[in-house]
Fold this protein.
Amino acid sequence: MDKVPALKQRMLMLTDYQTCSGCQSCILACSLAKAKAFSPSKSRITLRKIEEKCIGIPIVCEHCDEPPCLPACPVSAITKDSETGVVRVDSEFCTGCKQCSQACPYGPETVRFMDGKAFLCDLCDGDPACVRTCTQKALMFLPATKAVVAKKMELAEKRKEILTSTEAV
Amino acid sequence: MFGYAGRILDVDLTDGTIRKRELPESLVKDYIGGRGVNARLLWDQLGSGIDPLSRSNILIFGTGALTCTTAPSSGRTTVTCKSPATGLYLKSSVGGHVGAELKFAGYDFLIIRGASAKPTTLVIRDGDVELQDASHLWGQGVRETNNAIKKDLGDLDVKVACIGPAGENLVQFSSIMCSVYHAAARGGTGAVMGSKKLKAIAVRGTGEIKIANPERFAELSERLRKAFRDDMNGRKYFLFGTGTFDSGPAYNFLREPPESADIISGPYLAKKHYIRRMVGCFGCSQSCHRYTEIDTGPYKGIYTLGPEYETFSALGAGTGIIDPETLIKVNDVVSDLGLDTISTGVVLEWAMESYERGILTKEDTDGLELDFGNDEAVLKAIPMIARREGNIGKLLSSGLKKASAKLGKESYKWAMVNSKGLEQSKVDTRIVKSYALAFAVNPRGPDHLHTECMAAWGGSGAARALIEGITGKHWPEAASEYPEIVQWHEQIYAASETLGFCAFTCTAGHAILEREMAELYSLATGYGVSAEQLMEVGERIVTLEKCFNIREGADRRLDDLPWRMMNEPVSWGRLKGMVSSREWLDEMLDEYYTLHGWDVETGWPKRRTLEALGLEDVAEELDRPTKLPPEKGGMKST
């Protein structure tokens, strides 16, 4: 398998709930890559499911240009890499106050917690395990061209809509 | 134990006792996982002759040994019990997400025994296991039950296995519905759950599964997922699922399918945009299920998962309803009531032919005009079956073996049920010979899910090469070696189901076979199991399942096909005249039993066969009173 070189240029993760089959393979692949075990609790990516309608909505850090979680963090544990765009949580400083998850425009479950500390997707240094395992191509990892940015915004908007509508369920 | 949660959850509904036991490593070594360990547990814990609907029956949920991993399509769970339809062995493989949740909650196996006095729900949240009152859910459909439980528990992520009204009313072909739409069906699993007054099992697991070699496992599973995905044969299932095939046998196997029947198929659903999205079972790389919805017309707003091939054939071509929208509606109704779509269609087909022949009267049908193609009558009859209402509901809910005996007048001749008592699934076993043999020897009755020999159709180079490899002969002669083909498929089916693989991995695409499976299992557990050892486990499972039936009194006579398949040749088209006569079947059985090391007279495994598989104790038990064939020439093996 061709290994993508370490994250040099800006790459974007796109998630399309409309093609997601809800199989949760992404969660398995993420936890295996990051925690060396299969564990939904340790996965950086999660799914909200509406089983009756067979909808799966992948939820993972969007690494926003201006992440609202960053200023929300009272101890400045969250940083954004200016070169790669990756948003990170420094677990040494994180107090687990969950202000970041409250500030996240994509829903509180975007920020994951383990042992009282926040953790986020780090895009696997440019070769995300979840994307590799997603046979439905509901997860995509693409160079940040204008078109891709537009697509990402469109998909993020759609996701927000469905998430808002499901909260009422 | 790497790869496993390591525990068995054992719940006695009679007194509410909940026990958590360690999963014995010896059980895993001999039987690996889901289907195999279930078979052993059932053999060990059930005495012969118990009433399947009494509290003596047990219901076992067994997760696959590779479930909860990235092994392709490995999220299947096996449900095992004694069947109320046949009084024999019943295993049912189911997809969805319940099994994975159970394993993440910390249990590879769930055994349910006894019976509750009132409706109950088993709630499993990791280590917290409790029984909750389910009186308010009794009588509810599957969808409503799911929604109510999620609301009650305040957890949208809880996964539910439940029964509908059909299971509550002990219908002989009721199913257990997992994750709303995935059925553990055939043979009445739902009735067993209903007899225990267990409405639902709600599971939420937040634990983890550790494996022996994470790096190499990740690498191999990724490569195999890709291979399976790219496989020409398997690829079809991305688009249409099992609906890839045409509608199959029509009108109770009596007449030729109508030309218009091609509109009840996956491709047509796709073309007309009924399919909204593909849906995957847990961890599946294929995602072959299709969520369908209707936008306009009388069934506007109806949605369901499917219909699958068998449903299209049994409830569509079979009953003469050649209309995709009506069948989406029918699929929705049948699933929500918790009925098996195959048997529901097949009993209706039999009723329709009986009605056509004037044997079943309007009094028997409560005034319903059960003509082939009458969709209104079918939609009225289905809830009556699930609730055992009216004459027709009472008659059909008992299954075709009992219904045809009750109606008499030689109606067994068009009852698509064999001596074991299960309605046959929708394959014309007069024509497809490998299936004919496989159906006849299936311990649970005549259907395709004991072993499906798709490769024998020769649909691809890989399929033909596989059959050549099994038989050691060249194509096309190789395709006629039915006993060998069936035995090999039995072994790989059992091996894949015990690991948690969907049967499609090895039979639809031939991308993942015993070698790849053994490698994945070895990397996950560190046990170092070879492909040959894996196939031997498969043979052990198949043999033990057979022995369960023998202990119940079964012998060669039960390995047959429905009367029509053995006696009434196809009367149309270029395959006119084809039939699978008892004589032909007997020839096949002789060869098949011999390959297995089973006695040709009785169909019982020989003592030395059992001993070679490490089943000495099974041989001992079958020997009192003797259920072992006499050894020829006094050769008593040691």
Q: What stands out?
A: Chain A touches chain B through 36 residues (CB under 8 Å). Chain A has two domains: 8-60+122-169, 64-120. Residues 28 and 38 of chain A are 5 Å apart (CA to CA).
